Amino acid sequence: MKKPILFIILIITIIISLSVVQVTVSNNLSTTGVELAKIEEKITAYKKKNALLRQKLLAASSLDTIASKAAEMGFVEEKARP
Question: Dihedrals φ, ψ of 77, to 5°?
Answer without folding.
Answer: -80, 130
